[in-house]
Amino acid sequence: MFFTSNDVAFEPADPERLIQWILNTVEAEGYELNRLDIVFCSDEFLLEINRNHLDHDYYTDIITFPLNDNPLIAEIYISIDRVQENAAGLNISFEDELHRVMIHGVLHLCGYDDHEEEDIRMIRKKEEFYLKQLAVSSEQ
Questions:
Q1: How far is the C-alpha of 131 from the C-alpha of 125, rounded, in Å?
Q2: Could you tell me where the beta strands, DSSP code E, fall in the chain?
Q3: Suppose 113 and one of 60, 67, 117, 119 were both cysteines; which one would form an S-S bond, judging by CB atoms 3.0 to 4.6 Å apart?
Q4: CA gyration radius, the chain
């Protein structure tokens, strides 16, 4: 598992803890992780990916590309600009919003969707559950 940045200078705090959290989440959901690249980038970079690969002409905080189901091989692209804006709008810390976006992408890889109301409720419930797991790991 790798964290990289494309057109922004960014590294997440405590990457080893985040990697273990993601590995634990994937395992708890019944999957095996072969390779996951999480790429931090700008709004403009992610907008181009959204246009070119998904034919969507709007900004988004995350795009997940599953390349293999199980074991999982995937790429997740996260806009640092969008995470900052989301955090400010929600009046939460940048780090909390970053973690939510990260686990949201991981949950998509584990089969969760967010197109229907019931699906949205389920993925939000799972996000909260795994965010609490991360909080517990930081207290130890």
A1: 10
A2: 2-5, 33-41, 62-68, 72-79
A3: 119
A4: 14
Query: At 66, which CATH number?
Result: 3.40.390.30
* pTM over 0.90, yes/no: yes
Q: Is 118 helix (H, G, I), strand (E, B) or coil?
A: helix
Domain that includes residue 101, residue range: 2-139
Tell whether the torsion through CA atoms of 60, 66, 67 and 71 is positive or negative: positive
pLDDT, tens digit, 9 for 90 and up, residues 75-129: 999 999 999 999 999 999 999 999 999 999 999 999 999 999 999 999 999 999 9
In a 3-state reduction of DSSP, which class is residue 3? strand
Burial classification of residue 64, based on how many CB atoms lie within 10 Å of its CB (0-12 exposed, 13-18 middle, 19 or more buried)? middle
User: In the predicted model, what is the mean pLDDT of the chain?
Assistant: 95
Q: Could you give phi then psi for residue 67, rounded to 5 degrees? A: -105, -20
- Total domain count, the chain: 1
Half-sphere exposure of 83 (CA within 13 A, CB side): 24
